[in-house]
Amino acid sequence: MLFQFAIPASRAETLGALRPGEEAPKTFEEMWAGFDPRAEPLEVEMLKEWEEDGVVMRVLRYRAGIFKGKKAMIAAVFGYPKVGSKLPGLVQIHGGGQYADYKAVLTNGKRGYATISIAWAGRISAPDYLVNPEVVKLFWEGKTEDSGYRVTTDWGALDGYHAPCRNKGNAFAHVSPHPWTLDAVDSPRNNPWFLATLAARRALTFLEQQPQVDPEKLGVYGHSMGGKLTIFTAASDDRVKAAAPSCGGISDRDSKYEIYQDTIADSTTLTHVKCPVFFLNPANDFHGRVGDFDKVIDEIQSRDWRISSAAHHNHQDTAPYEVATQLWFDEQLKGNFNVPKTPKTELKLSGTPEITVIPDASRKILSVDFFYTQEGKAKETSKDRDLVMNRFWHHRLGKMVNGQAKANLPLLSREKPLWVYANVRYELDKPVEGVGYYYRAYQAKDFNVSSLIKKITVDQLKLAGVNATDKSSLVIENFRGEWRKNWFSYQPDRDWSLTTHKINDPKWAPPKEAYLVLAVQSQQRNKMVVRVDDYFAEVQLTGGSDDQGIVLQASSFQNVEGERNLNWATAKELELSPQEIFRGKKDRKTTHQVGAEWREDPPVFKVLKWEPRK
């Protein structure tokens, strides 16, 4: 018997709950059949209102629906510029552990957008209206007399919360029935992804009903879990005219539940995406694996897409990459910006591979950078988290000649595959301000558009006669030329901290017994921290005009628990910084601060290398 959506006998019920023995939806279309996001009143409740920098700001709640006889109300932060009409509207969706945050709404408002940031997990960050996990629990427990009590998201009879979920045992992977789910059978409508997406679709209804908003110009964006929800919302609602997911929505592909795979998994959801999409995905992101992009582009129906992928970054980014969200909506919803087309790449396989890129030159190009690795797997899954986060991307600078840029890619081995892509950095006419994935304010003066990754198998390398021309090296970094492209920092304006995955690459594999040697010059007497994974060594710099040699062995490093069992052979990430706070592995509440505030000019590094023990 084919599934037919159970239309509620009473319109008081948003979705008819399935009883034991009834058949659940098995496809994406069946999952959403019968749900009309416009059918019910929103019953908007105003919780707080203020004005800031010419933007009208509100904390409110709207009705998501009525499920199993109980009303579900979603809290949100909404704002719009005080002056303006026919505004484009945005739904902003937070990630796991995050909040509906007023800073995103305010910043967008100052740029001419009306935005609703939905608190699908109940947490809110707004002036004098903070709802953290402890306050969410006060709300669940009805402790209205507590001075910290705040009204927030109420899922009623269901549990669409996260970090924490309201009911022990609830998870975003399940489809099974529980007292807090809608259906009494295995069903995708029992899954919190479905509920949060339903809430986002109702937020679209809220936007299109606001007198300041143009209902034909609606977009959606979000980070991490919010990135997956962005894709889910765009796939299920054709009112979305543009989407910009970051770090999510592309790699949820390996569920053990067939019904989940056929309804909620990214591999299914993406096939329903028709609107223009800008994917913001760092190259080392664990949640949105860049190795899946060849499948993603084949799956989406939209041919209007871009990718921005920072090498080395994992689950967070810097301004030139985060700003893609703002620029995409400026193009798609306002029509006052043109994002350059995706760079076209060609790869020549013979001897030493050579890559060529032909970038869109419609805007001033600041740089063309190639990144390649031999640490990719043919089919990566969530179990490959450690590999994905710590792989190193070798950098080659491309020089523009006659509208194209080229670079050689020396390989260390013919026994490993080759992955390579290009980043094209463009100049902005004027700086763009926004808030990033975690609501940090930024100002971008340029932006990045990435190519797709070309993935070459071992068999293809051998068949093409590619040679291994690169050599292993004890010198990890000489700090000359374009060396910074092999390192990264998420807050380069805050301090001089630098991190790399070079020590995880076979090219710089340490000898069995080795010292880590660093030559550095610091004008003033300072402390610095050398971190390797969860282990740290605090170094005293004497200061002065001479280089100072630092020699560290594995036993020089300890973790918060005081253990000194660092193994060079398994080390993956190395950081140099002025100071850092470390957390314990066994007790995350245990912290230890190392280093100190830096005085005057940043250090000048001269060499970083392995030195065999004699």
Description:
The chain is of the alpha+beta class and 614 residues long. The chain folds into 3 domains: 28-334, Rossmann fold (3-Layer(aba) Sandwich), CATH 3.40.50.1820; 344-430 and 441-471, Immunoglobulin-like, CATH 2.60.40; 477-612, Jelly Rolls (Sandwich), CATH 2.60.120. Helix content is 15%, strand content 32%. It contains 12 helices and 30 strands. A hairpin with a 5-residue loop joins strand 18 (418-435) and strand 19. The longest helix is centred in the N-terminal third of the chain and has 17 residues, at 192-208. The N and C termini lie far apart (76 Å).
Give the helix proportion (percent range).
10-25%
How would you sum up the global shape? globular
Output mean pLDDT. 96
Instruction: Report strand %.
Output: 25-35%
CATH fold assignment of the largest domain: Rossmann fold
CATH superfamily of the largest domain: Alpha/Beta hydrolase fold, catalytic domain
The number of strands is 30
Corresponding CATH architecture of the largest domain: 3-Layer(aba) Sandwich
> How many individual domains?
3
Radius of gyration: 26 Å
Distance between the termini: 76 Å
The assigned structural class equals alpha+beta
Strand order within the widest beta sheet? 1-2-3-6-4-9-10-11-12
Any low-confidence stretches, pLDDT <50, length ≥5?
Answer: 1-10
Q: How does the major sheet shape up?
A: 9 strands, mixed
Q: Supply the CATH class of the largest domain.
A: Alpha Beta
Please count the helical segments. 12
